[in-house]
Structures are given as structure tokens and as C-alpha cells.
Write a structure and sequence with these properties.
252 residues
């Protein structure tokens, strides 16, 4: 099912530089039928957004800061989200912010049966990340943009690539075990889906890989097998834990 998405952007809390890449990423998950950005547009720091809004058909919502230290933008965005929810015009929401204040909103929208995608910087607090069905880091979208523009710039983006830690390997291993048949094989598509449910910010691009298959190949703890697909010309990929790594895990 192609989701109709409401894209709500916290203009005070998200950099404007890669809004084009952000909208392209959102389009992978559904049709962004509502696109709004919230902020006090009388403030100079939001001026960078103005041309980008026209180019991407995003509607700016003016919200004056009534009190120093209080974020009126958050309140306006939350109220709008609830109005959109009750209008029943969308199947999902994309909340673009690095602010933990939207944690309860994400939870409430999911309780109502909405698909919730979050986009924010790596500084985003964990409660907001895990409240979403999927969470995408802005830094990853920036890396992809630089890669397209100039291959030589890849070296400048290495700081944004996460290390494949033993914890990550264990997460993949246990997920394969959760889904495996009697011979230990699990369909890679199901593995990817369950990883996303367990950890909404899990994304192979965080570790420098476009897809899950090359990420798993690079680790060396897993076996991969291609099988014929009778419904399509594309082959099915299955994965299993290598026996020696399973035994090591049991001893630990």
C-alpha cells in the first residue's frame, strides 16, 4: 500500500541544507500529500529555508515565539498533527526534528494506527527515535548527497559512519535466529523488517553500506544463499549464522 504521508518539519530544529535529499528519502515510503514547516519566519536564522520551500512545495506555518525559553513551534506542530490525524486524510506521518518533545506525539500517532517515520540529526534523544517505526539520520542523507556530487568528498564523511560493534553483530545474529527455519536459514527481507522493529534507527547506510546484503557480507559471521524466485526474476536471498559464531555466542 502506498501511504499518504503528512510531512511536518520543525524549522527551528533541522538544518535546511539537504531538504531536497530529505524529500527524496520520504518519497520512498509514501506520497507526501501534506508538507508543512513550522517556525517564526520573522527570525533571520530561518531565511535559508525560504527558496527551498518554493522548490519543494512546502507550506510555511508562522508561529510567533510568545515567551522566551518556550518553544511555541512544537505546540503548533503537535496541534496540527492531531488535526490531520482526525481528518483521516493520511495513513502516516513523517516528523522531521531532533527534539525529544515530539516523543509523545509519535507514540500517540502510532497508537492511532499511523505509520510514523522520524528524521533528525544523530544528536536526537533515544526516546524519540524508538517512538517511531523508522528513524533516519540527516547525516546519512548528507553523505549520499556528497557522494553524488563528488566521489572525492567521501573521505570527509567518514566521521558520520558508525562502527560495526559487537552489539550490532549480536542484534543481527539474534534476529536471524528469531526467524530461522530448522536448518538455520532466514529470508533476508524478513530479517531487515524485524531489525527495523527492534531498532527503528537501524539502517545499513549508517555503517557505510547502501543495502543490508553487503553489510552482512562484510561482517563475516553469516552465510548468504541465493534461491530462485518462482514469482519474479529477482532471486531471494537467505541468511544464516555460521556455526562457529553461534557456539562462541553460547559460551559467552
Amino acid at each position: 500500500m502506498n501511504l499518504n504521508l503528512a510531512v511536518l518539519i520543525d524549522g527551528d530544529n533541522i538544518p535546511s541544507a539537504h531538504v531536497k535529499e530529505m524529500m527524496e528519502e520520504i518519497a520512498k515510503y509514501g506520497n507526501p500529500t501534506i508538507k508543512r514547516i513550522y517556525g517564526d519566519w520573522t527570525k533571520p536564522h530561518l531565511s535559508k529555508w525560504k527558496n527551498l520551500l518554493l522548490q519543494n512545495a512546502i507550506t510555511p506555518i508562522q508561529q510567533y515565539a510568545y515567551t522566551t525559553g518556550k518553544n511555541a513551534t512544537d505546540s503548533a506542530m503537535i496541534i496540527d498533527a492531531m488535526d490531520i490525524l482526525y481528518s483521516e486524510k493520511v495513513n502516516g506521518f513523517c516528523l522531521v526534528s531532533s527534539d525529544s518533545d515530539f516523543t509523545r506525539l509519535a507514540t500517540r500517532l502510532r497508537e492511532a494506527g499511523m505509520q510514523v517515520i522520524g528524521i533528525g540529526e544523530k544528536k536526537t534523544p533515544t526516546p524519540f527515535i524508538v517512538a517511531c517505526d523508522k528513524f533516519i539520520y540527516v547525516e546519512i542523507l548528507r553523505n549520499l548527497s556528497e557522494k553524488k556530487e563528488d566521489v572525492s568528498q567521501q573521505n570527509n564523511s567518514k566521521d558520520d559512519i558508525d562502527e560495526i560493534t559487537p552489539r550490532v553483530i549480536k542484534l543481527i545474529s539474534t534476529t536471524i535466529s528469531d526467524l530461522s527455519d530448522e536448518e538455520g536459514w532466514a529470508f533476508l527481507g524478513d530479517v531487515g523488517s524485524l531489525l527495523q522493529k527492534k531498532q527503528p534507527n537501524f539502517d545499513s547506510r549508517n555503517y557505510g553500506f547502501e543495502k543490508l546484503t553487503p553489510l552482512i557480507k562484510s561482517i563475516g559471521n553469516f552465510e548468504l544463499e541465493q534461491r530462485e524466485n518462482h514469482k519474479s526474476k529477482h532471486k531471494l536471498i537467505f541468511v544464516k549464522n555460521k556455526e562457529k559464531h553461534l557456539q562462541k555466542g553460547k559460551k559467552q
